[in-house]
Amino acid sequence: MDNFNEQNIKVTFPNGEIKMYKKGITLEEIAKDVQKHYKAKIVAAKINNKIRELMNKIDDNCNIEFIDLTNIDGMRIYQRSLSFLLIYAVRKIIKDGNVIIHHSMGSGFYCEILGMDEVSEEILNKVENKMKEIVERDIPFKKLSLPLDQAMNIFEENGMEDKKKLFRYRRVSMINLYDLDGLKNYFYGYMVPSTGYLNLFRLIPHSQGFILQFPTTKEPTKLPEYIPLKKLSQVFLEYKNWGKIMKVDTVGALNDVISDQGIGGLIRISEALHEKKIAQIADKIAQKRDSIGIILIAGPSSSGKTTFAQRLAIQLRVNGMRPHAISIDDYFVDREFTPRDENGEYDFEALEAIDIKQFNEDLNRMLNGEIVEIPSFNFKLGKREYRGRKIKMDVNDVLIIEGIHGLNEKLTKDIPKENKFKIYISALTQLNLDDHNRIPTTDTRLIRRIVRDNQYRGISAEKTIELWPSVRRGEEKNIFPFQEEADVMFNSALVYELAVLKQYAEPLLFKIDNQSKYYSEAKRLIKFLDYFLGVSTEDVPKNSIIREFIGGSCFR
User: How many domains does the chain have?
Assistant: First the structure.
């Protein structure tokens, strides 16, 4: 590199290395210079702690941290850009064809083509080949900053009613659009520089539509094996039908309801659908009361498992059954026997952290009608204690056990399958920003957790965001691989909840300083919540799952 002069800039990398580049160089050019030091393709950068697209030029000295596909932010950028590529290809193959990107499904997005009851394999092949052709052509994604009224005219011309609704409530004068070979569209977030970056994808027929599959952060250089998730797919379909009942499938449609002062009715319908589903699950269990003695509930963080278990217990009582709650945590092994993770820290989420032998012995004895004293784990001392709590099961009694390993057959290995009923619960968000910008399920759960951690545990939003990747790794290892083992799945998402959570989460996120390592994530969530009109909590019932996070639950 040339020595420093006023035509050069100084770039400092995370490892302390300093390099000189010509003023006005793009981040993409610098990325090519350092790509060999990264495990996967670089798709964006952080400059002085703010995410920037590779198309940006650099004119001043700065600190640069590149983002590749092993990073969740990088994978989001890849997925978003790939979605635009798909939308463009469909438009080229089908005149006025419009893709609806519904929700995640394994390592991909489930998509449909508007107006098509089923997408044929022939159409999919044509679309996939067109996408590959566009990747080969390496067409740039051009960013345009347009006045709001001009952008709204573009949405009108392209039949994007969903985007018109979304921006009807946005407090902005300018909108950033992206242009791909003449097709203009809005996307919530950043893009790769050009289509040449998007060489890894696959289209797989699924239900009425198809899966747009992409790599994962764990294995960013190849496509994973496709494993159909039939039960999860069915839950999403059910929630999609709920959206039709409520006529709310996008944030713009939700904001319409809020602005028309109809949110009270929407809340009541949403909660009634939840109650109906819980009652149906209880009825299903009651039909097999002669054999089912144990109900196992599992799901990822902030799914609302505690409230769900309480509401299920009420519905079981309505069916003449008597539930007893048992916590798996009370069967932790004593602290000195707890396994450790790769960093030498106690791994409380490992299955081996539980005394499986004692747990199964106690369950079998209870199912046989014996009186069993249940332990209580003393977390301060790190030891199991017995404090006189005893359970004796009679006819129509049932055990409710909630915990992350509930669906793993190894947890209850000594209990016959016919004696168990497994329930998977998660907030599987079906509501999207618009037809092309989905709301990740993980974002809903993260916002729930940020609010709950602050409300009940005094933990800052910054700390919750810091711990979230570790939480997610635990879910990937201990929960998601077993979700299809469930007898039923319950979707705890509420179509109105982010409009309620917004007013709790925003002040907490604004506290994260721009010098924080987690500032870019806080900024992303703040921007996301800004799309929602806020809603008061007065119409939210005391037994709602959302009360588990915002407070005021009748179960606490």
Answer: 3
